Amino acid sequence: TTEGTIRVSGGNSLTIGDVTLAAATKYETNLSAPGGGSLTVGNVTGGGNALEINAGTAGTATITSMDEVLFTLADSGNTTVTAAITDATSTLALLDTTGVVTLAGNVDALSLTTTSEGYSLVLGGTNNIDGTTTLNNVGGVTINGTTVFDDGLTSTASATTLGADVTANNGSMSLGDVTLTAGVQLEATNGALSLGDVTGDANNLTVEANDDVTIASVDDVNALTVTDSASTTITGATSATSAVLTDTTGAVTFEGSVTLDTLTTAAQGYSIVFNDGGSVTNDVTLANTGGVTFG
User: Fold this and answer.
1) CA 220 to CA 161: how far, in whole Å?
2) Mean pLDDT, the chain, as a whole number?
3) Could you give the percent of the chain with pLDDT greater than 90?
4) pLDDT tens, 88-99?
């Protein structure tokens, strides 16, 4: 059981086994040595208490797991939480790191906060984040496990790499440039969906929103599927093996040139607009009933 501050100096390492927090606690390895030293902690049972760690600008911090912890990462070279972060009252404030913050296990947290520093963030497990989440770190965001952001997600400060489905339950989703490493579904159940330039690396992308969908461009996507939206607009070029337009209330608009092998539409009331031409290799039957416009 620990509380208060535990510091080591001179860049030495600090190792703590499984721990229960009795009150707010700090672990620091950067006393008199800004570069810090390695900091290793076992399973942390927080009981709703705060834990702050600071491994300096170069020290590696490793935590096995956290339960009901109000966690602050002040600084490190790299930080990894190897197993789960549990209890929906847990909070995660990632203030600074030189390299990568990796949350490798499942995350269930009340909030996740990042700052406009150069570190990257990796979410590896199955995750549920309450509240409105804005990821401000500029070193990139990678999401490799199915993740739900209960009140929306904004991650436009840097590029996003996606290897799993992401849902914004009660708000919008806004991402910067996106690279796919697997087939992905992006859904904003109660808001708009906005994406920068999408690089598919031959993976599938499915988008769905109850408001507008806006995508800067689509390149090297296998199957692009629009499941539903108020309207969908791709402002730049679209290059995909296939596009499947299942439903939309208004229009699906391709502002840039279109390069597809196949195009499939459904007998729904949306319209399709092609404003810059392009090509579809295979025969096309346009089944939508809201009209087709060639600009």
Assistant:
1) 15
2) 97
3) 95
4) 889 999 999 999
